[in-house]
Amino acid sequence: MLDYMRSNRREVIAGLVLIALLATYLGTHPRGASTYVMTIWANQCLILGLAACAQFFAVVVRGIDLSVGAVMALTNCIASYLLDGSASGIAFGMVAVVAAGALCGLLNGVIIVFGRIQPIVVTLATASVFIGIALLLRPTPGGAVNYDLADAMTLDFLGIPTALVITAVAVVGFWLPFRRTGLGLGLYALGSSEQAAFQSGIDTRFIRLAAFTLAGLFGGLAGLFYSFVTTTGDAGIAAGFTLNSIAAVVLGGVLLRGGVGSLVGALAGAFILKTIASLMFFSGIPSLAQPLFEGLILAGAIAIGGADVLRARNKLEVYS
Amino acid sequence: MRSAITLDSLMPFFGVVVLILAGSVFFPQVLSAGYLTQQLQIAAFLGLLATGATIVILLGHIDLSVPWVLTGAAILSTALVGTGNPVLSAIAVPAALAFGALIGVINAMGVAILRIPSMVWTLAVNSMLLGLAVLNTGGFNPKGQSSPLMVAMASGDILGLPISFLVWIAISLILGYVLTRTPFGRYLRSIGFNEKATFLSGVSTPSVLFVAFAIAGMCSALGGVMLAGYANQAYQSMGDPFLLPTIAAVVIGGTSILGGRGGLFGTIGGALFITLLTSILSVMQIDDAWRNIIFGVIILAMLLFQTLRKGAVA
Amino acid sequence: MTDIRPPLLEMKNISKHFGATKALDGVDFACRAGEVHAVLGENGAGKSTLMKLIAGVLQPTHGQLRVDGQDVALNTPQDALRHGLVCMFQELSLVPDLTVRENLLLGAPGAGLGWLRGTGLSDAQDVLNRIGGDQIKMGARVADLTLPQRQQVEIAKAIMKKPRLLILDEATSALSASVVDRVFELVREARDGGTAVLFISHRFHEVEALADRVSVFRNGQRVETFLKGAHDYGEIIDMMVGQKIEELFPQKPAGLSNAEVVLDVRSFSWEDRVKDVSLSVRRGQIVGLGGLDGQGQGAFLMGLFGLLRKADGTTAIAGQTSDITSPKVAKHQDIALAYVPEDRKTEGLILDQSIQENLELAALGRTDLDAGDAALYSGSLDQLALKHGGLDLPVSSLSGGNQQKVVLAKWLALKPRCLLLADPTRGIDVKTKTQIYAILRQLADQGTAILLLSTDYEELIQLCDETHVFFDGAIVASLKGAELTPQNIIAATLNVATNEAARHA
Amino acid sequence: DTYRPECFAPAPGTSEISYDAKDGPYKLAFVNGFAGNDWRIQAIQSAKAWAARPENAGKIDEFTVVSVGNDSAAQIAAIDNFIAAGYDAITFIAVNPTAFEPVIRRAERAGTILVPFDNVLDTDKVVQVNESQKALGALKAQTVMDTLGGEADKILMVNGLPGNATDRDRRLGMMSVLEQVEGLEIVEVVGNWDTGTSQKVVADALATHGEFDAVVSQHGSAGSINAMQAAGHPIVPMGVDGENGVRMLMDELDIPGVSASQAPAMSAVALEAAVALLEGNTLPQTIFLPIPQVQAEALEAGVNYFPDLPKSFNTGTGYAECFAPFTPEELLGQSPDNT
Ligand SMILES: Nc1ncnc2c1ncn2[C@@H]1O[C@H](COP(=O)(O)OP(=O)(O)OP(=O)(O)O)[C@@H](O)[C@H]1O
Ligand SMILES: Nc1ncnc2c1ncn2[C@@H]1O[C@H](COP(=O)(O)OP(=O)(O)OP(=O)(O)O)[C@@H](O)[C@H]1O
Ligand SMILES: O[C@@H]1[C@@H](O)[C@H](O)OC[C@H]1O
Ligand SMILES: [Mg+2]
Ligand SMILES: [Mg+2]
Prior knowledge:
Distance between the termini of chain B: 23 Å
Helix content of chain D: 25-40%
CATH architecture of chain B: Orthogonal Bundle
Pfam families (chain A): BPD_transp_2
Number of domains of chain B: 1
Strand content of chain B: under 5%
Transmembrane segments (chain A): 12-28, 40-59, 66-83, 89-113, 120-137, 157-178, 209-229, 235-256, 263-285, 291-310
Protein name (chain A): Autoinducer 2 import system permease protein LsrC
Number of strands of chain B: 2
Shape of chain B: globular
Number of strands of chain D: 14
Oligomer: heterotetramer
CATH topology of chain B: ABC transporter involved in vitamin B12 uptake, BtuC
Structural class of chain B: mainly alpha
Main location (chain A): membrane
Strand order of the largest sheet of chain D: 8-7-9-10-11-14
Largest interface: A-B, 53 and 52 residues
Largest sheet of chain B: 2 strands, antiparallel
Keywords (chain A): Cell inner membrane, Cell membrane, Membrane, Transmembrane, Transmembrane helix, Transport
Bound molecules: adenosine-5'-triphosphate, beta-D-ribopyranose, magnesium ion
Order of helices and strands of chain D: EEHHEHEHEEHEHEHEHEHEHEEEH
Distance between the termini of chain D: 35 Å
């Protein structure tokens, strides 16, 4: 147990910060901890959580994906056309939405791998293209998502918020097994040392393509879940999510230099970020002071992770 | 000393020429001196921001606080001028620059001392500045105004050349000199490639980071002052539209986002290119959706062209 | 031994060019199953390049590779693995952020992208146990291992793949003699089982101990291939360097006991990693620091250079007590300390920058020097005979030995009063070593205090006037003169036998 | 009949809505979207100024304001939170006009009244407070065409932030007038409701298209005027927004036309509407507030613009038909720490 905590120190810190913030939030909430309040909270958290998962896959291979928000916007607009109508139509629609996200990611990956251009730059450009396409689909917000489906995905299941169930499924059903596959390990290897990965006989191109495709896929999932929450399509949602997804993964202990961190951490980081924002609701902080407080808490949470280095007794340690 | 002018950094200038020629097919006025000098004037705002960003990117970092440093500097300088007090008006520009430098120092504290990735720390600083601006506007709201100096810097011209452009180029030349001819410039790029080895060579790498982020903050602040002079006022969010174009300008100018490689010459081309591209898409009245798509595709094409050329050489 | 089968691996007229550099030029080379084939040559001779071609990491500019007489194209390491060609690289192929187990899984035979089973893990564990790596935890992060431990893991990872051809490219450079012996035993076993082994080492006695056949390379060409024993040591060195090497180590001057003290360290402690270390260096002396890896000697050097926070103790240089808090302070002309770090690629050099820029970097911050003045470097560059294609080329284009020369030259430009060297000759060829030894001795004679951390006890014996051996953070033996024998050093290293006498307060 | 129709004027063809009266004092919340925007800050200040007025203060138990950013999911969450906390009414500026259908249902179940304003919803289920965006656009276009005597060759139209329903409707309003003009060439640029951006795009349009007979512009119009001045463009009729700086310029340069605004004080009217509904009054489902407007000739310093206030200040400090407009002191004197 102690060993586990030491080797996953970053995730553990993120988890503790999250618990503290959530307790404060529930403590200040007039309604307190209840399924309703937890459901509202979890829905928001999961959207950014999925976006952070998308960012995680780019970051773990030492990249950055500036198109996460744009992929969400595009898939959200697609969803607003496909998620209403017959049950089979909706089922197909959900698959199509996620596939569209994966396709965006694959496109990023292809340009990054075969064009040999830095991910951050590629995705800066493709984000513009994705948003353009989203705007073609939805010049102004509109469309609809089947309300029953939306309710099923965004309310609760036996008193447990569906969003938390989905989070658990993502972790237990996908991430933990995935981490034990060659692909899962390959992502870390590539991000930690491309040279070593290559010399170990790993197909680094394929892994990088896979990483960005997964990033796109999770971007699509984020867009899909966003569609359930908002039941509509909006091309203008990109801006906030991209930068927040980066902040989220860092808060969750994922290192931007690649090779370190986990999907669990990314999720925790996203939940932290959204909980900070939720704290404002009943904090009693004057409305015009809220953005400042939000910024201060964010900076504080980030600095907690950073303060670690002040303890380093060997000055070279901070450079690794 | 290796030349700052590489083929990579020339690329955006070719791009500018192509854009002008292509644009003139639809609008012959694009070739007029009036339109072109206007682009120089406007490119200066982006250019100044990109100048600061280049320095930080050469270090291997990134500064996402540009938007609200810009806005904050604009609010501060116009507020000082707005007091009507001649002394306060006179120090408006220096005060804004000092503000930029201060924020740069705060950025550097997170990055150099706490070793927080610049990409998130500067983002957090950006949110705090937004918060401060909101609080400030809401609480006591001084009448704001740009000083004649600010207006002249943004909109005046000397011998037909916009002063904003001349200021930008002058600053690029000074900083270009610093980057290529001084130890500081060498340290900067060395850190961009390998901070640890630079530190072990007896360089006080934190100081370099502090100075670099401070310079970047001052560039953003100067951009804010100029933009306030241009619009004759300051307003919330005035910096938001500049963040991504700033990064795009630096990268198009051939500076590696990984640090170490690149320079200000290319950034000048990058800022001109992005400004012109935006302008031409605007005057062509292309639908917003298509503007986004074309913008992205052209940036990608430029980048692919750069790497393909390198591939062909290797 | 007559073998009518085609060689396991055959290379025909192979060339590899990097821009203008011809790393390999028209090489014919073959390696048979069941032989240990040593490849010798000075730094930059092209040995590693040859291995990388075999491992599919690089592709030849011209020429053809054959496996079992069949033409093959090895475009990726996977291609090579498929033919059973496995390489342990000079730069390790371990992923630092993954655990030992994960690294082994990644490299395991048949590991694809799908579900990973632990196949081969127990083989790897067996190998580790046999080569003294039983301490290494499967769950430990590779980045947290010492270099020798990493080399052990790398060996296990290579062997678990059951290679038909195993390449050891300076794979044992950081291992202690006893571990090397066990590795060799393993290699011999593999050879006897029909594996072909290509072996690269700069330590001649290792070649002596292991090789069946030897190929010598020089300047990208194969000079000669012969059975071990066909040529003696001197002849082989002549072949390698193309000239005669008279003496590897320079003559030690006698009678220094009352020369002035240049560096004096008292009661240096840091955390619980360095314990109360005191030593001094006199004019004309080279003082060695020995010990197993990770006993605190490396940390001690770092501490002297101002890299450790909250270290206790005093340091005096030329009688002047100095408080050294950072490398910047350390290199200042009033103190004039220089430190050549252990890992030249990540700590000593900025690989993407030119040789010139690297040379200037240390001098740049010194107000009393003009870093742009070529005269600062030309002397040591000439003396070290830096082999380069132009000072404006990236330093990464140099071979390991020549890179190390750049690191040295960059610091010598500052005319340091005290030179701290962390294993500067690891992976460096014999000729370069002589050059480095000569320059060190000359510097010492001129009054530079030299502290030399080394894993090579030959150096500690032949080059150093006095050697302090570290164990668990403290100096357990200080040996000089006739006490400097391999037996004493090894004993002290393991902190056995007569350690009481050597321990001082 | 609906309650106080001079203020809460019904949109053409709209229905009526009322709820059972509830006893006060009430718990009210205002959920803003993005905060870093002068208009929105002033909307927050107006809401607080309204709540501070003695005639309102007595009716209020709690009044909370939060800003959530440009994220409709976050806004939905905020509203849900206030519903969960038992708030009586929630006003909000919707980040997205179509995303609130499920929230409306949840509010209805909980008995919480929702009153969207400014950026409103595509719904007929709740009372919404706004100006007619189409009328706002049409007013500007009509005024400049009237000034020009109904004839023009070329007109410049500066649009707002694409993707917003308000931008779309204001443009449609302008178009509805301009399309009637024979042979008129309409040049459109996108100013993003941002003074600097407007200035740039107008400068470019002037450089490439030459002179225009008139200009109609959304938020950020000072930029349009600056650009025309810089290009030496002659004074032509303009339909502009209501920022303080624009009115200063219009008066100083004697630009003919109209300054008409979407007033941030709308936030106060929305609260007033919420209280009216809580008290059991009937209101039109869609309320079109009278558009605050000043013909160029009527501009007067200290009355309808304020040389001592920032240019980014919005002159829309109230709707006289509803209640006495806030004085700038009332808005700015609001200390930020008495929520
Ligand atoms: N990627 C590269 N780019 C340019 N030059 C290279 C590259 N790799 C190797 N070289 C050059 O090729 C030559 C052979 O290098 P190689 O690494 O094969 O030498 P080596 O015999 O293994 O030396 P050492 O004993 O130092 O390991 C050297 O001159 C080196 O500088
Ligand atoms: N348990 C530990 N606690 C703190 N730091 C450690 C620990 N283990 C290793 N290190 C770090 O590793 C660095 C190397 O120190 P160490 O004493 O292991 O070097 P060394 O014995 O001289 O090794 P080498 O022989 O390879 O040079 C130290 O500066 C220290 O910061
Ligand atoms: O209605 C708009 C408002 O929502 C926005 O915040 O500022 C500009 C106004 O026109
Ligand atoms: Mg080698
Ligand atoms: Mg008047």
